[in-house]
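Kindly go through the following sequence and its backbone structure tokens. Advise at your convenience whether the structure tokens fit the sequence:

___
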Amino acid sequence: MKFLKSLLILVTVLSCSLSAKDIKLKETSNQFAITSKSLSGFTFVNHLSEINTVIVKKDANEFVKLLVSGYGEDAKRGNPELPVLEELINIPFGSNISVKILNKEEKIISLSDYGINHPVFPYQPSLSKSENAADAPFYFNQDYYNYDGFYNMNLIETEFLGKMRGQQLARLSVAPFSYNPIANELKVVTKLEVKVIFKDIDFEGNKINRQKYYSPEFEHLFKNCINYLPLQDKDIITTYPVKYVIIADPAFQAAIQPLVDWKTRKGFMVVEGYTNDPNVGNTTSSIHAFIKNMYDNATTSNPAPTYLLIIGDDGQVPSFSGNSGSHLSDMYYCEFDGGGDFYPEMYYGRFSATNVGEVETQVNKTLTHEKFTFPDPSFLDEVVLVAGVDASMASTYGNGQINYGTDYYFNVAHGLIPHTYLYGSGSPITSDQSGASAAIIADVSAGVGFANYTAHCGPAGWSDPSFETSDISSLQNYDQYGVMVGNCCQSNKFDVAECFGEAILRASNKGAVGYIGGSNNTYWDEDYWWAVGNGSISANPTYAGTGLALYDCLMHENGEQQADWFITTGQMIHAGNLAVTQAGGSEQYYWEIYHIMGDPSLMPYIGVPTVLTASHVAATPIGTNTFTVNTEENAYVAISMNGVLLDAQLADATGIVNLTFPAISNVGIADIVITKQFKQPYEGTVQIISPNGPYVIYASSVVNDIGGNNNSLVDYNELIDMTVDLHNVGSVNANSVNVVISTTDPYVTLINTSINIPLINASQIASIPTPFSFQVASFVPDQHVVAFTLTISDNLGNIWISTVNVVLNAPVLDHTNFTIDDAIFGNGNGSLDAGETLDLIVDVTNIGHADIDGLIATLGSLSSYVTVNSVTSNIASLAVNGQQSATFNITIDANTPAGTLAEFSFDVTDSIYLYSNIFSQVIGIIDEDYETGDFTQYAWVNDINFPWTIDNINVYEGNNSTRSGSVPDSEVSHLNITVDVTAPGDISFFKFVSSEQNYDFLQFYIDGNKQGEWSGIDNAWSFVSFPVTVGNHDFEWEYDKDGAISDGQDCAWLDYIVFPPIDLGQTTNIDQLDFNFELFPNPTKGSFSLTFNDINNHIVEILDNNGRLISSLGNQSVRTTFDLKEYSAGTYTVKVMPEGITYQIVKY
């Protein structure tokens, strides 16, 4: 821009915000509303009632930021950042835009009248997440700020953006603010009425384009335009299925057929294109021409394609080079009618694969997810949300995005279990804590339905906290994979050997089923808008203050119209990119870089989906050409037969769908598949029968378990009688009907397998005269489904096959709590202490679907310092969802060193169903309370220049605490200690701060990574705690002052620091225990051996550097061998019990 020559460039980072006064205007509310609209134009009103202000510091200077709910900013670099309202509009074909201001009221406001005597903050361009914010220039247009007058601004602007799916898009901007920096005044248009007129419209061409390129799954995009109008003769264009195009390497053709079959049954017109076909080719231009031909030649009966799935890495199916940066972009495969714009006409995704196995993996995961065949779907309630580490940006941008998600959607009120990692503070584990990376990986490894990370990335994955391709092999989320979003740089950069998005999709039966991310660097502003919506960026954004974006459009729980629902992964990208487009950000760049690794038509589950209501007749005769299904509004209903799609439609508000198709000419079975967002898919069948004969099918069944618990459910170890009803859906009576039941399932044994029914009249439902019977095995997996086959025949030789599914119920044992009760015999502190006799209480629960009784719980000690006095505890019975306590009495040796880790083995069983676990607890408390009056209790390292001191005035407990040194401006007082942590645990302490708010801080670090910081003037001591992993760790406390101004007592205090289990030099005294062993070789490439100096049996455990047990062998004597070849390089802990000896081995 012209003013760049006068920019004053500074290179320091903006400081924290301070509050300022809000400016009230005479209007009753901030309001933008469409008052009338037609194809020829629309009218809107805009009212302003309030301007919020915030003071921000920049070096020694202060500025004011002007904020209006729902507004963005005037994005002219270095100029005053004035609020601007931006909306998307639709422009009819052939038209020109004319703007007429019908009414305008304005007011001049003196900011000084509100105590604001600082210049308006200058607009700063969005910062790439690949850049260090501290190194970013600060732009300030000195010429503008020296001008004594109101710069002329265009009150109303329209900007043509491009074409999408036969419609033209533009951005409407309303700029009601002008600013005089010398006079410190704002000129504000408080009330505005505007008419936008479209002249010279091509009415017929506009209608033809709307009809030709209409897709139900794209229409909601255009409803984001404020002047959207539905197509009047919509019935003409809604009677066809969605078209789905697959482009693949021919080597993958056989592997993708299960996906083709499912998509067809689901209601998609699937078109397969292979790169060895001359009509498709293997270049970007030839493939694009193949797809574009379908788009250009679309008709209402042969619609333009809606989805594109590319199967193969960029070496198998190439990608375009982006026009706005150096990156790959699949988007241009889907851009047809914009004359070179960047608004795609299709949703697109990629199964990136280099071999058949990788294709099969992604096909299988997609089918498991879409067909909802997870063995245990409860993981879908789990959500991981991470605001990653960036000292300058994360507290506002990252935390703002995640806070918005958890405030409105991803919370317990929605039945979800959020695992949230905010930056700095506000979550159980913050992203800048040392344990965050391991915790996030553990969360994903346990299974999550949805995950979102925003901060820094590279092609290998999430950078800080780290979760990268090297971590994927260790994930254990088998059959528990959801959809993940990375708002970060390059995590979908699929022109490298293997990026994170590719790797997590290629992981067999684990990882993720879909990953959305960028093929190049992303930006802080744009990523925030992409998820939260256009508006002022805040750490605590509101729904009213932001436009619609990914979160709102995916969840649509705030009254959004159906038009604003974006329910598939492909649509999710469009929702985010449209928000960036509305905000006027780096729109072309974002449309190019954001990709979905996975199926773009997949609908993520956010929580365990509920059952979809559906009903239809069980049979229909040959010659049928219509079929009615009753279901729920917005459900997508499809009928197919023998792999051929007959019809698919979206249910209207009545839930009734009338499917039409050419008359069916043969008997057989037609498939009915119904899908809907956040619902379990329905899969049913319709018998196509002869109109001139009998046709007998299974109708229903009832189970009788009177010999068991008589609850009318099929439970483990029960004898079941099952009565079956059969339905003759034919037009002729069925005589001498014989029914044989069979199954190959190992968990049931059939007893009575054959029944005869003399007569079933036409259209009659008849029950079998005597029940089938079967015995259920004593051990069965809970919720296992047994598929019984009914072979039904009659005296005419007709044979009909039906299937009966029966769910088996069994108990599943677990525990909820491990409690220490030392109130009677101990000191009552709820901890294990040397010399105590106490009770350990384990609460056992039954999370299965059948009761269980006769349980015996057993506790064992793996420590030589602990004696279990009562080894067993009886539990008479445990109902479904019931809980009972098992109590064990133990004694702890009086000579047990403080910090010793006691481990207990726990089992509960009825001899068939078993639950086992190992509990660990530290004996004694390793603390520092400074009651020695000095720093000699542990190996403290105090600051040489500004040492911490012992204080007996301000204490939390006892007589002493420690206080930070007297620190001048821009200096730091340090206190640190290095310890060897022997088991996972927490470090906790009490703190008291008296400092300048937001500028002078008490900070706590683990291994150089900041865990938390606190400023201001406290009125009382407060407690904090942080997780710590096994290994050597450096704990450091700092009191850090900025360059000016002091407040309070200008210091911080610490007291009662409790350490995790640490090596005090006592637990591995081998001579004292009269025991030794040899470990060789150390370091090792993989395998190593342990040789003992006695003939006793030992338990040997191997733990990784996060304290996780990776191997355990019991009854080892003389010599045993371990192999670490499959594990990554690092330090591992070898633990020998019952002696309690630990030793470290290095694998390289």
Remarks:
- The longest helix spans residues 356-371.
- The CA atoms of residues 156 and 174 lie 5 Å apart.
- The chain has 14 helices and 74 strands.
- The chain has a mean pLDDT of 88.
